[in-house]
Amino acid sequence: MASAIGGDANGGGGGVRRRQRGCSCTKADFFPEESFSSWSAYGRALRSTGSRLADQLTSRSLESTELHEVRARSGADMKRDLTWWDLVWFGVGAVIGAGIFVLTGEEAHNVVGPAVVVSYVVSGISAMLSVFCYTEFAVEIPVAGGSFAYLRVELGDFMAFVAAGNILLEYCIGGAAVARSWTSYFATLLNHQPSDFRIHASSLSASYNELDPIAVVVIALVCIFAVVSTKGTSRFNYILSIVHIAVIIFIIVAGLTKADTANMRDFMPFGVRGIFSASAVLFFAYIGFDAVSTMAEETKNPARDIPIGLLGAMTLTTALYCVLAVTLCLMQPYTSIDKDAPFSVAFSQRGMDWAKYIVAFGALKGMTTVLLVSAVGQARYLTHIARTHMMPPWLAQVHPRTGTPVNATVVMLVATAVIAFFTDLNILSNLLSISTLFIFMLVAVALLVRRYYVSGETTDANRNKLVVCIVAILATSVATATCWGVNVDGWVPYAVTVPAWFAATVCLWAFVPQARAPKLWGVPLVPWLPSASIAINVFLLGSIDSKSFMRFGIWTAALLVYYLFVGLHASYDMAKALAAESAAAKVEDGDGKPARGAVHDGDY
């Protein structure tokens, strides 16, 4: 097998031409790789696509590569000035926003009824399992790349790229959804309908014809904050988040004074299917905590600060969501809940018209913090992806004065603004949930690989048993989700698929020895928690509508086209350059240790 650190059989070139530090915008900033030095070089690279793809499918990066060589490609370092306190408030600010203040009303009214609180519990359990997986990775590999870096180390470049594209999609459409919701609550604050602030374009299709200029302006202002200073953004975020928590407490206390338990009598009008269908969409409300993991590179003490920050933020958020959902359903019958601004309208209909302004103000505060944290997180994802040259390295530049990735921040927020300008919230929320659940499932798989497989140490027999167990866990989870998605009647299929998932997890626990223990902080109850995370994420995927899967498929196909024609060749040359640098350093040091930046074979 060809290695990512060597030349390919067809002479496809290799290596990366060094760019000089500083903010510039030349061809060398976008395509410095040897494969793009000329049309003939590009032709040779394309002819080598097969061998390079086979190489990248099985080659995995080393932790030290992500922590040192890849990070150094940004020129300047990010500033390490965040603590667990910053991370907790970043987590709260990232999560509590449009999901609870908008989607709660839509799902309670149309899909699940008062049992929306159970939907939030299900989504919260899934999110918490993913938080555990993210936390171990963030502590062990504290870089800006988040799940992209974790997947590169454990599942290889190809799977990391597929996940990376969906991570970027997740952030763009998530920010767009929040920005459009910002307009809705801003309209409520001014006693207007959201349509009063949107431009109707009759020539466009129904889900894309309500143009939202206010959303674009809000995103532009957030962009300015995000590029100036991460610590400054953090301070601004936790001030807004404290105000936001105060408003949430007001909503709960004031809302419960208008509670009527009769509104909860028809608790599950849409049955169990409604609960899980709503859970899949309401997972949107928990999205954002992964942005905190991208700040590990800027954290003073990752081993202490990241577990406290991530787990503390998610615990607080889940509790608040459940209490808010109960409060809303106690205030009015689910059939009367407004789909656009549920809490504001609920107070208005219960004779507390003045309270709707406080609610709208709090919602705006919450959505602003979500946009801020999202802007910070998405830029750091893109920065690390660009460091590997899967995206143009111009996007990896860190400004030497601000210590922030200015180029990546601006590009991501421009893309977010374009989507927010055109696209309806319902389309955004469903597509967002697919991308996120898919990524979280991959991170859980990667954690199992991390614990049970170490290249050069794990025996072939144990490697093969690991592969069989992971495939079985995935297959039984997909089978359960498929039965649910196609609405199979009866309990018999689940009596087969669920015990089969349990048996696969038992086999992994009993017959495959763990090859690695976490150095600083680890997920408890491995393999049970990661396996449960895989199962519940895949199950929730089975509750999402088919049109969203079609859009997801189109996006993934577009990613693969880009990868085969651009990303594969750029990252291949980058891997060769890193290996050459490491080999030179090894010779210079005169030791016999493996080169720090080498790529190792992760074929199992």
From TrEMBL:
Pfam families: AA_permease_2, AA_permease_C. Residues 1-20 are annotated as: Disordered. It is found in: Membrane. Belongs to the amino acid-polyamine-organocation (APC) superfamily. Cationic amino acid transporter (CAT) (TC 2.A.3.3) family. InterPro entries: AA/rel_permease1, CAT_C. It comes from Dichanthelium oligosanthes. The chain crosses the membrane at residues 82-103, 115-137, 158-179, 211-229, 236-256, 268-289, 310-334, 354-382, 403-422, 434-454, 466-487, 493-513, 520-540, 552-572. This is Cationic amino acid transporter 1.
